[in-house]
């Protein structure tokens, strides 16, 4: 007899007691009937008590049970005697009544105690934190408690009479069920973990214990006790994942207790420090102290940890081999629920590798990989210095724009290998005829720029031009080919032909095209008559004045993709100008003019407000969009109302600062003064995202980067273009991405045009991609259409 029978007995006892009690109120025709009913109901009551005591009996209740059995026998005699000896019924009734009364007193005491204990058991089971399931021998559910209903979603009425398999998820191994059935059928307990399914279809994990219940050596019921361990399973998986990350991350991780005793390190830290885990456990991090920092350094460090809960910065560590290395250290205090520090976690990045990599990347970033000449970046850096000196000392200097004649024909007919060797030979010849104070740089293709720092007049510039023409006229032997080449050269003088890098190069380029038009193999000086074209600065300046008021400026948007998920996460806003006077003018033509004249402030305000307004509409279509990237000119930072204006705009449009990324070109960063840095800090504090655009084309130092409040570094398109064929560009891109990651920034690669470039950049841990491979820049209407398609789209044009 199992738990289910015990509950049934409890109900029947209550019923019989109520019937006996009602005998006192019932009006029978004679005493004979009263005696019969009293005797029969009392007999049933005693039988039920005996049955219940078989389930609940303790050693001290044995005598009580014997007394109850005696009363039962006496009642049998009373009833039989009544049938045979009616004459003496009164006497027997008197005697039996006395006995029954005494017995019932004992029974009353026993049933009350039994009932109270049973109620306690029922309450405990019903309100248990575990699910309780009782089945019959055929595994049909007889009883479930409240926890079962809450955890599974099945009510008692839904589940009673059904097989527990209704909870099966189909995810448990067949071997698990085989083991379960084998143990239960052999009368043994089974314990294990199961993945089950709730009524709503959701999955949950349970720790299950099932025991068979025997009656007369035969299985009558199965009792299952279940504990929901879903939370613990998830925590276990998270711990496992954390452990994998801990051991495989590139950053060194060191964990100490509250007393700064090392309790754990990962493999990366072992590699950085040179010590094994066994050598470090129990030691203090001061083992790595290099003595390059004074006590005030450490005092400031610990003050930050105590007040803010963390410290990060550059520190020098003494590693096992005795060398001292620069490390980027990030220490965080871990506290318990009462705010007490229980451990410290520190992350270490070996900056020496980054510094070495940056030095190599710096050379690659400033030099052409084919000719080893300075590239455009290095040229502009050098020119800015030369122009500054010439302007200060009121001196004249010259630049030459050189373009090889007929190079395209040679390259196309004889192949790129011959073309490359020709460019290498030409570079050496030009370098050979210049003085040490002069610079020659390769602009790309077959174009070169020469900076003549000490050429104070046209005659001095003409002398160098002729030497270059003469040396290039000589035949060049490449393999089996004898090549004859020449060049066209344009000359621009500072300050007469321009006072900025952009203007000087543009005017020298104009003069070079004039030389080509005159039959090639000659040089020409720039003069104003050569600049009568639609891109003349004065015409652009005049046309720009009505660009905004005349509704000539508009924005295109180029999608930025998460390289891992292939989802569009943002757009970059790109300004375009279609002038009614001079026609479509590219940004690289009109933006410098706008900056020189200060009109970029008004144009920048238009771009910011329009981009924010459009992005709000874009986000209504695609909720996953994170932000809009907007380019900011350094000239705008000179506007004292810059911050207040953009705050007013985002308030009017109702857009969050975190949904806006402000892009600043790297080459402008070094021009920042203390006021500019304060503006950056203020913008970052307001919640704006900050990024460095065209990274690698300027000359940011490692120290400067760590001070900037930025989130994203954008790899310039010029480096991405060379992937995968140009190893230098590959190495530069890799170094920039590694640097960005080590500083905790995300990386965007611009100008991705092929699947191969995308895959390589993803393998280098670049986060975000942008370029024609994903989507070309689109106007507003086409951007809306693009978003409504809601699918990954690779541009073919």
UniProtKB/TrEMBL annotation:
The keyword Lipoprotein does not apply. Residues 537-791 form the EAL domain. Residues 117-162, 238-283 form the PAS domain. PROSITE patterns: EAL (PS50883), GGDEF (PS50887), PAC (PS50113), PAS (PS50112). It comes from the Bacteria. InterPro entries: Biofilm_reg_signaling, EAL_dom, EAL_sf, GGDEF_dom, Nucleotide_cyclase, PAC, PAS, PAS-assoc_C. The chain crosses the membrane at residues 87-109. Keywords: Membrane, Transmembrane, Transmembrane helix. The keyword Transmembrane helix applies. Residues 395-528 form the GGDEF domain. GO terms for molecular function: catalytic activity. Residues 188-241 form the PAC domain. It holds the Pfam family EAL. PANTHER family: BIOFILM ARCHITECTURE MAINTENANCE PROTEIN MBAA, DIGUANYLATE CYCLASE DGCP. NCBIfam families: GGDEF (TIGR00254), sensory_box (TIGR00229). This is EAL domain-containing protein.
């Amino acid at each position: 007899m199992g738990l289910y029978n015990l509950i049934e007995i409890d109900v029947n006892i209550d019923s019989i007691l109520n019937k006996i009690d009602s005998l006192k109120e019932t009006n029978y025709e004679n005493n004979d009937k009263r005696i019969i009913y009293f005797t029969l109901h009392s007999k049933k009551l005693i039988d039920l008590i005996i049955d219940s005591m078989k389930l609940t009996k303790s050693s001290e209740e044995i005598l009580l049970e014997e007394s109850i059995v005696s009363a039962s026998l006496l009642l049998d005699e009373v009833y039989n005697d009544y049938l045979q000896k009616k004459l003496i019924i009164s006497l027997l009734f008197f005697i039996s009544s006395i006995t029954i009364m005494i017995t019932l007193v004992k029974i009353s005491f026993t049933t009350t105690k039994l009932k109270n204990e049973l109620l306690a058991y029922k309450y405990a089971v019903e309100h248990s934190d575990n699910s309780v399931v009782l089945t019959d021998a055929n595994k049909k559910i007889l009883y479930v408690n409240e926890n079962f209903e809450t955890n599974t979603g099945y009510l008692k009425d839904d589940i009673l009479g059904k097989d527990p398999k209704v909870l099966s998820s189909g995810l448990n191994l067949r071997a698990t069920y085989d083991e379960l059935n084998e143990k239960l059928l052999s009368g043994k307990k089974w314990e294990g973990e199961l993945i089950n399914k709730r009524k709503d279809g959701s999955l949950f994990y349970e720790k299950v214990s099932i025991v068979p219940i025997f009656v007369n050596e035969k299985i009558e019921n199965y009792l299952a006790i279940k504990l929901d361990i879903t939370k613990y399973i998830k925590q276990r998986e998270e711990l496992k994942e954390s452990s994998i990350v801990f051991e495989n991350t590139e950053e060194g991780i060191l964990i100490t207790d509250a007393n700064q005793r090392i309790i754990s390190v990962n493999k990366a830290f072992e590699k950085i420090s040179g010590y094994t885990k066994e050598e470090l456990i129990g030691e203090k991090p001061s083992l790595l102290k290099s003595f390059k920092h004074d006590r005030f350094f450490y005092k400031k460090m610990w003050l930050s940890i105590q007040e803010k809960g963390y410290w990060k910065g550059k520190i020098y560590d003494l590693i096992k081999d005795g060398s001292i290395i620069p490390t980027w250290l990030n220490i965080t205090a871990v506290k318990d629920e009462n705010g007490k520090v229980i451990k410290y976690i520190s992350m270490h990045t070996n900056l020496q590798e980054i510094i070495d990599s940056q030095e190599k990347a710096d050379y690659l970033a400033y030099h052409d990989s084919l000719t080893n000449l300075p590239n455009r970046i290095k040229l502009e850096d050098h020119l800015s210095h030369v122009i500054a000196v010439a302007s200060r000392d009121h001196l004249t200097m010259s630049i030459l724009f050189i373009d090889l004649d007929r190079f395209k024909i040679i390259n196309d007919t004889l192949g790129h290998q011959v073309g490359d060797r020709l460019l290498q030979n030409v570079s050496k010849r030009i370098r050979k005829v210049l003085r040490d104070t002069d610079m020659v740089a390769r602009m790309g293709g077959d174009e070169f720029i020469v900076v003549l720092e000490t050429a104070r007049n046209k005659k001095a510039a003409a002398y160098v031009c002729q030497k270059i023409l003469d040396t290039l006229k000589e035949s060049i032997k490449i393999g089996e080919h004898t090549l004859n080449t020449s060049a066209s050269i344009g000359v621009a003088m500072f300050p007469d032909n321009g006072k900025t890098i952009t203007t000087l190069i543009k005017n020298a380029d104009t003069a070079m095209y004039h030389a080509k038009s005159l039959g090639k193999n000659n040089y020409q000086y720039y003069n104003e008559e050569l600049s009568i074209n639609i891109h003349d600065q004065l015409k652009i300046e005049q046309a720009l004045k009505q660009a905004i008021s005349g509704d000539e400026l508009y924005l295109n948007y180029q999608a930025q993709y998460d390289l891992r998920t292939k989802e569009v996460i943002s757009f970059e806003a790109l300004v375009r100008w279609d002038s009614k006077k001079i026609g479509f003018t590219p940004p690289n033509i009109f933006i410098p003019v706008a900056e020189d004249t200060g009109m970029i402030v008004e144009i920048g305000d238009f771009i910011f407000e329009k981009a924010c307004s459009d992005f709000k509409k874009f986000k209504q279509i695609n909720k996953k969009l994170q932000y809009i990237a907007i380019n900011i000119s350094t000239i705008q930072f000179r506007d004292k109302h810059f911050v207040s204006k953009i705050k007013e705009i985002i308030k009017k449009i109702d857009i969050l600062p975190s949904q806006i990324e402000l892009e600043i070109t790297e080459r402008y960063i070094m021009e920042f003064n203390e006021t500019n840095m304060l503006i950056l800090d203020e913008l970052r504090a307001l919640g704006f995202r900050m990024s460095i655009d065209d990274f690698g084309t300027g000359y940011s130092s490692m120290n400067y980067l760590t001070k900037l409040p930025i989130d994203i570094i954008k790899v310039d398109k010029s480096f991405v273009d060379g992937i995968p064929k140009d190893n230098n560009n590959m190495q530069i891109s890799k170094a920039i991405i590694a640097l960005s990651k080590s500083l905790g920034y995300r990386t965007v690669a611009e100008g991705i045009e092929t699947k191969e470039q995308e895959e390589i950049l993803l393998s280098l841990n670049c986060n975000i991609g942008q370029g024609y491979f994903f989507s070309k820049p689109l106007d507003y209407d086409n951007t809306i259409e693009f978003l409504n398609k809601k699918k990954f789209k690779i541009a073919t044009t």
